[in-house]
Design goal:
This protein is mostly helical. The protein has one domain (3-124). It has five helices and no strands. It has helices at residues 3-32, 34-60, 65-89, 94-99, 109-126. Helix 2 (34-60) runs parallel beside helix 5 (109-126). The protein is elongated.
């Protein structure tokens, strides 16, 4: 398993997501408010994760459903760790960080992470490698 490649793709994803987050804070949050901007950011972020994955998934050379889901799971763990650590380093409170995951109160991050989990499998299938995924 090319775990270094898996990590490299995640770095590309987190780099794109970091730029996306900075633009969201600078351009969207002042107009519609931080919380609503974060909600929109989950949806647009999921699209970014999919596009980066779709572009790079063949480079991973994986054809197993189980392994593709394991890759997505690893990306979820890495992303949550990154988000929490970055949030705390920037001074965000635990309640602020956890609000992104509070679905009943509009926090959509959990849904974004669910999308990230299945993105490697979906991207592989959409790249036309349906027959090779087992």
């Amino acid at each position: 398993m090319p775990w270094l490649r898996v990590f490299a793709v995640w770095l590309a994803i987190i780099g794109a997501e970091s730029l996306h987050g900075a633009l969201r804070i600078l351009l969207l949050a002042p107009v519609i408010g931080d919380f609503h901007a974060r909600q929109i950011g989950v949806v647009t972020g999921a699209v970014i994760v999919f596009l980066v994955t779709w572009l790079l998934i063949r480079w991973l050379r994986v054809d197993s459903t189980r392994v593709l889901l394991a890759i997505g799971g690893l990306w979820v763990v890495l992303t949550v760790t990154f988000e929490v650590c970055l949030g705390r380093l920037l001074g965000a409170s635990w309640s602020r960080i956890l609000s992104d995951y509070d679905l009943p109160h509009g926090g959509l991050m959990g849904l974004g992470l669910l999308a990230m989990l299945v993105t490697p499998l979906i991207a592989t299938r959409l790249r036309g490698e349906v027959g090779s995924v087992r």
